[in-house]
Amino acid sequence: YDGCKTGVQRLIMDLFHARNIGWAKGGDSMKMLPIKDKTPQICWKTVEKTLTLTGEPVLELKLSWPQGEGAGPLVRSVSRYYARLAQGWQRQWEREGYLCACVALAQKREQSRPFTPWTASLSGQVTLDNGEYLSIAMLAREVHADGRVLEYRWGDTWAWQDGAPVPLGALFQGQKRWRKQLRSQLEQAVEQSRRSGAYLDQEIKKPLRRWFSPSRFALSPEGLELYYPQCTLAPAVEGALVFRLPLPESVQIAAKEEKEA
Questions:
Q1: CB under 8 Å to 127, separation ≥6 — which residues?
Q2: Can you give the pLDDT at residue 38?
Q3: Is 128 helix (H, G, I), strand (E, B) or coil?
Q4: Which regions in the chain score pLDDT beneath 70?
Q5: Rounded to an integer, what distance in angstroms lies between the CA atom of residue 238 and that of residue 149?
Q6: SS3 breakdown of the chain: % helix, strand, coil, rounded to 5?
Q7: What b/e readout covers 8-41, taking b as 16+ CB neighbours within 10 angstroms?
Q8: Do residues 136 and 126 make contact, with C-beta atoms less than 8 angstroms apart?
Q9: What is the pLDDT of residue 253?
Q10: I want to staple 151 with a disulfide (CB 3.0 to 4.6 A). Which of 219, 240, 242, 254 is the partner?
Q11: Which residues contact 142 (CB under 8 A, 6 or more apart)?
Q12: Quick one: 48 exposed, middle or buried, by C-beta within 10 A (0-12, 13-18, 19+)?
């Protein structure tokens, strides 16, 4: 009986540990004590892989994506979303990307020319984490053997409280003409980029409006970052474009340390 009782107690202890409830044992009595959750935080997981053809490197992969640690709705949302995202990019590169790289290798062999392995990477960074918002900017990048670079940049903003994505329009708190306001600020940012040396298309107002997407943005302590796909407003050599705008007056962003002080 004692052995059975010990086994049952151990099973119950395991179950309560799984539910963040602990046991404190004193003599023959036991009482429940709460186990403190880990402080929620964002870490990065990295996978590196080299794909080969007949032993020769063809495509080098490096994927890095955010994962949540600890407890809370945002941790679950971030972990699931970015894990699926990374799997999708890895699957695409291991199939279509790998086949294209193999064709490029075959062409180089026919010409008796050296081949440089393609590279494909998924990377990102936390642009804002102030306890209210978590904003993450991501970049998918390919470099082909001929030096051609393909980029795609986007961002995601989350609410720490409920773990839900924050749409761009929500930052303007119901302002009806927030899109028009952003377009005006974008035109100013375009001219500033020209003065800074960026080579942008001459006719840019129509594509600026056409390719604007409220889903491609991120927050930072300095302001709002809007992303445009490669080749939409400028030659491919400019890559994916980033325009930085001032924050809406309704958005107050403080550093995490300031909020906790």
A1: 135, 136, 137, 155, 218, 219, 220, 225
A2: 59
A3: strand
A4: 1-39, 174, 248-261
A5: 10
A6: 35, 35, 30
A7: eeeeeeeeeeeeeeeeeeeeeeeeeeeeeeeebe
A8: yes
A9: 59
A10: 240
A11: 93, 97, 118, 119, 120, 149, 150, 151
A12: exposed
Name every residue whose Cβ is closer than 8 Å to that of residue 94 and which is 6 or more positions away in sequence.
Answer: 51, 61
Geometric angle at alpha carbon 42, from 129 and 44, rounded to 5°: 125
Cβ count within 10 A of residue 154: 19
Please, are residues 153 and 216 in contact by the beta-carbon 8 Å criterion? Answer: yes
Phi-psi region for residue 197, left (φ > 0), alpha (ψ -120 to 50) or beta? left
Residue with tokens 């107050």: 252
Reading the block at residue 24, the tokens are 């404190």
Predicted pLDDT at 172: 81
For residue 50, the tally of other CB atoms under 10 A from its CB is 12
In the chain, what is the straight-line distance between the N-terminal and C-terminal CA atoms, in Å? 55
Q: Give the pair of three-digit tokens for residue 199.
A: 């080579």
**pTM for the predicted model, two decimal places:** 0.78
